[in-house]
Amino acid sequence: MSKLIGRLGTPGATLLFFALTIAILLVMRDYFPAELAIPLEGSDIRPVLLLEFASKPEHLINIFGEPGDPARADRIAGMNTGNALDYLLMPAYGLLTLSFFFGVARELADRRWRFFGWLAVIAAVSDAVENAIMFSMVADMSNAMPEMALLPYPVWLKFGLLALTCGAAVAAFAKLKRWILALLCVPAPLLLVPGMLDPFGLAPMATSMIGLGWAAMAIHAATRWIAHSRKPV
Asked: Which residues form a coiled coil (predicted)?
């Protein structure tokens, strides 16, 4: 563990956690239901996001179908498996962002940048709480309103903190004069509030923009790694 912590901030560590994040996301995608059982009018939101933003029992019907739907059990099983795998994703993206900001702190000789990395770790913990609530909600869909009342808090704390880390990455890349990478990180913080105000319309795109920030962090790490490898011994 001490060796792992010691390598945080190195380009190799950041790339490793990015690769793990992408790999886990790809595996999760194969388990989550691909489409809603009953379309939500005016929205093309994916089932897993509708579960995160669910605010009334009818949304669970949209996701899983009516009790007599023969595919309902498979949809529930797929959603639960995907959300179980999400517990692997949480440390991956948390450590990706933490490693990136540890690296920025070294490059800019300012340890205060590490603070933004720890925000992603808090986001991952909030994500774990969110999933626990969703498991409880799916386990007893006949009485899901208490969980639905709690769910927005960890959901938007997670997305808010991750968007904030992207905003901090904009500032970091600007200091490093890496303007294209800075631009990649702009959409997530810019679209956060509009997404919160339109959870079934704009939010799916707004939250996906966090992935652009992670990609920018990985590109930065990759270019630093290449530059270091080309230095004469």
From this structure: none
Q: How far apart are CA 164 and CA 68, in angstroms?
A: 43
Sequential DSSP letters for 80-93:
HHHHHHHHHHHHHH
Q: What is the DSSP letter of 187?
A: H
The whole-number pLDDT of residue 7 equals 80
73, 89 in Cβ contact below 8 A? no
Q: φ, ψ for residue 62 (rounded to 5)?
A: -60, -40
In sequence order, the 6+-apart residues with CB closer than 8 A to the CB of 196 are 156, 203
Non-local (6+) Cβ contacts of 111 within 8 A are 105
What is the gyration radius of the CA atoms in the chain, in angstroms?
Answer: 19
Query: Distance between CA atoms of 231 and 219, rounded to whole angstroms?
Result: 19
Average pLDDT over residues 103-108: 96
Mean pLDDT of 186-207: 96
Cα separation, 119 vs 101, whole angstroms: 10
CA distance linking residue 89 with residue 22, whole number of Å:
9
pLDDT in tens, 127-141: 999 999 999 999 999
Find out whether 216 and 165 touch, Cβ atoms under 8 Å.
no
